[in-house]
């Protein structure tokens, strides 16, 4: 079995916890390294296996990710767990390849406008960067999988509407450049379930038997409905963050990623086993509450818990 | 066209605002009659047409509904608008029939246990009450439609799991007793989207070309995903309450009804026109904020508003 199929089989649901990366991208305070380790350990004990833990960015500008290497080392020691981290340029990728990382995440914007504003490069250059990262990866000892995430895939805060055909074209270009897996991201929470279902179905077709990732934000309350539509359309890998951490710089007042706990509950009610114990998972919110007291935590399941008097898993 | 088909056509989506009834059922403070009138007027101006405005219950025990008749009179004067109100016994139905009410709502529990605990009658007696209400209605001058809502249709806080076949049997019994329309209610927010989609599809089949109502609570964050699944399965009439008002006595800490504003947005993103102006609608929350300052208002769309730079209605 290929390494990507081992990490992301397409016949069962896999949830990626991106709180340690996307959730900390914009915050002013963040957990200590010890608290982050505890976050990982306790989520691992709850059954979480796929962790996105940071970005390979200059620590002077992004001090919240200065400990990314230490977290990757930690996860390397956890049986069955895998680590992912962002690399936004060749330098970041080289740094990443010196760690025992399992998955290196690159980003391509769905629109030329966002690509230039966010990464100061064209979309074509972003695809070329993936090709370079794949080459560097192939020359490295560790050989993590390469994940190409398409940002603004459902609408762009700068360019507005995004043609799904353009997203599919970019997804194909990323795969052609050697990416092992592609993701579609609703970066600013513009999508509704019909749009997510339609693009997920097209991605499932494009990717054949391979898995793809759906990364959702709950900016307008559609997060769980969008996740449900993605699953119905054949998506099997979804991102979320504990407590819905992760605001967006382009949408003031907006919430962050779709809430991981609620996502687990959604999958389980659909009869899709996540391997995650919801009560142990929600208890990990304590770490965020004590380490990031200024951050509002989201999530609905935590208020009432699963139905107490029936077998709610079909 | 029958009166029920005029109120609830099955070829377009209709949203019922139940905040003035379900939203006020358990609160300790409630808006003045003047503020309730303002709530109705402003929602009407935003495009809302179906209002559930209270219950015909003894005013001594339920003072929040003492003005139900005045609100029904108000709505009677609004072109194209209709009023619904609960009647839980023959006395309530008789009182209701003395007003220009458009829709009288009766409740049947999906489980014998909840029926006895909540209404002190068997389910069979609840169905017989519908037959009586239909007869009283047929003898009345006003002739509102009769709506039979099946509470606990997706799981019961007392009895636990509920067999969907039992819900369908009850729905059929209500129609046989003369109900013009039947609803399925997730009273304690137990349902997930698969369950809601499956039962909605079965209800669509049972009801043939007639509409049926889906009444959801957002207790565990599945409200909008459940609504989306109901719509996908053919449901065309959904309940919601402004700001998600409406806690549940059986689920401490739980939120109330699915948020009306988010429900409007969901429908519109699916290309289903509601006729409701979202910005004017969300502005009506001001009334709840000033009249019920102790109540937590829910809703996600209100934080960010619809996507600002694209045509998000397909």
Automatic annotation (TrEMBL), chains A, B:
Upper lineage: Bacteria, Pseudomonadati, Pseudomonadota, Alphaproteobacteria, Hyphomicrobiales
Keywords: Lyase, Metal-binding
UniProt keyword annotation of Cell wall biogenesis/degradation present: no
Protein family membership: Belongs to the HMG-CoA lyase family.
Domain of life from the UniProt record: Bacteria
Originating organism: Microbaculum marinisediminis
MF annotations from Gene Ontology: hydroxymethylglutaryl-CoA lyase activity; metal ion binding
PROSITE patterns in alphabetical order: PYR_CT
Metal-binding among keywords: yes
Domain Pyruvate carboxyltransferase: 13-282
Pfam families, per the entry: HMGL-like (PF00682)
One of the GO BP terms on file: ketone body biosynthetic process
Entry protein name: Hydroxymethylglutaryl-CoA lyase
Gene3D superfamilies xrefs: Aldolase class I
């Amino acid at each position: 079995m290929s390494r990507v199929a081992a990490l992301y089989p397409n016949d069962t649901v896999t949830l990626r916890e991106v709180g340690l990366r996307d959730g900390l991208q914009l915050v002013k305070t963040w957990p200590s390294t010890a608290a982050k380790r505890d976050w990982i350990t306790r989520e691992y004990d709850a059954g979480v296996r796929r962790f996105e833990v940071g970005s390979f960015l200059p620590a002077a500008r992004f001090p919240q990710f200065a400990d990314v290497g230490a977290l990757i080392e930690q996860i390397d020691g956890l049986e069955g767990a895998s680590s992912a981290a962002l690399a936004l340029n060749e330098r970041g990728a080289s740094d990443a390849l010196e760690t025992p990382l399992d998955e290196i995440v690159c980003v391509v914007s769905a629109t030329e406008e966002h690509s230039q504003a966010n990464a100061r490069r064209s979309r074509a250059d972003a695809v070329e960067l993936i090709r370079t990262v794949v080459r560097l990866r192939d020359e490295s000892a560790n050989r993590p999988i390469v994940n190409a995430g398409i940002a603004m895939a459902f609408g762009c805060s700068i360019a507005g509407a995004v043609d799904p055909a353009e997203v599919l074209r970019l997804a194909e270009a990323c795969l052609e450049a050697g990416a092992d897996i592609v993701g579609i991201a609703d970066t600013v929470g513009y999508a509704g379930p019909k749009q997510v279902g339609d693009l997920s179905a097209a991605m499932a077709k494009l990717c054949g038997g391979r898995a793809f990732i759906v990364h959702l934000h709950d900016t307008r309350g559609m997060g769980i409905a969008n996740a449900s539509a993605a699953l119905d359309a054949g998506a099997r890998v979804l991102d979320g963050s504990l407590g819905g951490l992760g605001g967006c710089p382009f949408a003031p007042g907006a919430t962050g990623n779709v809430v991981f706990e609620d996502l687990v509950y959604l999958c389980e009610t659909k009869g899709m086993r996540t391997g995650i114990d919801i009560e142990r998972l929600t208890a990990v919110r304590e770490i965020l509450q004590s380490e990031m007291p200024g951050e509002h935590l989201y999530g609905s399941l935590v208020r009432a818990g699963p139905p107490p008097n029936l077998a709610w898993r079909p």
